[in-house]
What we know:
- The protein is an alpha+beta fold.
- The protein has 2 domains: 84 residues, Sandwich (Immunoglobulin-like), CATH 2.60.40.1120; 184 residues, no CATH class.
- Helix content is 22%, strand content 34%.
- It contains 7 helices and 15 strands.
- The strands form 4 sheets. A 6-stranded antiparallel beta sheet has the order 9-10-14-13-12-11, with helices on one face. The protein has a 4-stranded antiparallel beta sheet with strand order 3-2-5-6, with no helix packed on it.
- Strand 13 and strand 14 form a beta hairpin.
- The model has no long low-confidence stretch (mean pLDDT 94).
Amino acid sequence: MALDGKLLLKIVDVFGKRIDQEVNINLHHMGLTHRVANRVPGGKTIRVAKLHGRPQNLYRVQIDPPSFQPVQRFVRTATKPKLIEMRFPVDPGKVREVKFPSFASLPSALRSVLKDRNLYDSLAEIPKAGLLNILTKSLFTPLLDESVVVSHIVRVNRINGDRIIASVGAALWGQVNDGAGAELFKRVDGSLHPAPEAGFERLGSFKTPDDYGNLQITFFNKGSEFLADIDIDDAAGLGHVFQVLRNHLSGRDTHPYDIHQILYAHQSIDAGYRFQV
């Protein structure tokens, strides 16, 4: 059987920049026992030859760049192959440094919510990343009255790596509750979100209808005061958006850096910070 099949592969990060690292590449034929394993430079087009061609030309390719998460994809070889581009999300554990935008360069809507430049500058990398993920997603989440979620956040009271607790205007509750009927949001179970302060009662929890990288808002009130527990939910985004290997994801929580990559790759939402790996 002639081995006249070839592959041309280009590996890039979520921004389309070539990954200039040596990578492990493994190809498994889907039907025969043919396997190919190699370590090759990722900074240029990867050329693989001597593969099975048509009609038995289906392979599973797995690539593992050192500073990025391993990705797999099913590909078909050809005698004159077209270039196949594969995108890789950064591995949070391999990030050496994060370059954040200055407070002055943030969108005005975000500055008006944060108010305190000193607080923003003093945040550690992970909570700052989580904060920017949530506020930027809120900036691009529309409401029925054509405003956006972030414009109704009065103050950020607490910042964790994956969520914020914020004081919000009563109008946000009404807009999101009514937006569920217009399919801007969907009602979800909020029982895992306890009241952030004593005396507040849960009103309801809602998610945006995105396939991955959903903004979830859980509302609480005490009299005329309203609080919102806001996070970005993602149970399967890395596996579906990037086809990250399942065994790499099992047993670990979604990291704010993962959310950053999902928002950009899946929704073209840029939280503004960049990684040095």
